[in-house]
Here is the input.
Amino acid sequence: MPPNTRTLSLSEFRTYLTNLLEDDALFVAATLRGKDGTNVTDPNGSVLIHPVRIKAQKYFQFAYHNFQKVTHRNLPLFDAVEHLIELLHASNGRLNIRTTQSDEQVVLLPNGTLKLTTRPTKRRPAALTHDRVKNYILQEGQYLPFLHALGIMTQTGQVVPSRYDKFRQINRFLEIVHDIVKHLPKQGPLHIVDFGAGKAYLSFALYHYFHSVLGREVRLYGVEQKSDLVAFCQQLAEKLQWTGLSFVCSSIEAFKLDSPIDLAVSLHACDTATDDAIAKAVQWNAKVILAAPCCQKELYQQLNAEALQAMLRYGVIRERLTSLVTDVLRAARLEAAGYAVQLLEFIETEHTPKNLLIRAVRSPHVHRQAALQNYQQLRDFWHVLPRIEKNLPLSS
Here is the structure.
């Protein structure tokens, strides 16, 4: 088959690269070469990247070949993606990627976009361990009082069979958190807010990870409007003697906090509650935002792209497009606010069969004006006015 060539914006390339590197069955290795065409056998500013496992965690090893010397650096997924983008810009070179299905070449163009050329091929996956149980941050068989109290684990440390999906979801979430730890302050207490905490499975898991696993001082606030859930969670936090974890009965809009926020979390907040949480986090200058939206209904009636009326007349298609358009607009607005954004596939729940997770890290390298133009073009194409813009006016 002939090669396929397409042009990607920086935002599109970031998402493409994240999804590729995250897929153990697809990504094999990559080589970054300078303008002079050097490669790893002729060491003059080239880098080889491949996945490795270190203490049950997945990293990407960068092997730098310079002046007959090789140095190495291991980075988690998010850092690896950003570092690759930085290297590509710094070298003004080309990135060659090997997958199990293709050979791909990425070239940075003078206008800042990237040309991706794909040539189909077949090869074996990278040699990585795929034992999901061994790779969990929370290990089955290790008794954790908070999981037992939440009905996920027995007193012997075994996961209750009917709660295994929740156990997987918590671990998947902690893997994503693991990737962003380096973007949080390294000294002093961490300030974290979980908007729409619900029964607070992830609030407790977050606190356990930062406090018990990483040994950090944490001030974590779970915000929830249902008073019975707040009372239950607060009682459990006190029983565990987790003094840095507290729960507040409040709406997202009404919640106030004097301290700066390092990490803002909003998982499965329904419809525009996700926009409220994102806006609050941006207004607080949160360093990292993690949001898994749910039930995106707001734009269902608003979508009105003339060229796509043949698609929009089908309710199920309109519903799916509504979710995608809503989340992309959220991502674009976050980029315009100065965040490097990735859209990741999270994990299915009883509420949502397929999830996207918005991961946003405040970064000085984001081209905010270009992101704002992207947002406006997308909004105008669909003829919508989303809640995220109402909460975060474009002038802010």
Summary: The chain has a mean pLDDT of 85. The two ends are 49 Å apart (CA to CA). Residues 145 and 184 are 27 Å apart (CA to CA). The first strand starts at residue 4 and ends at 8.
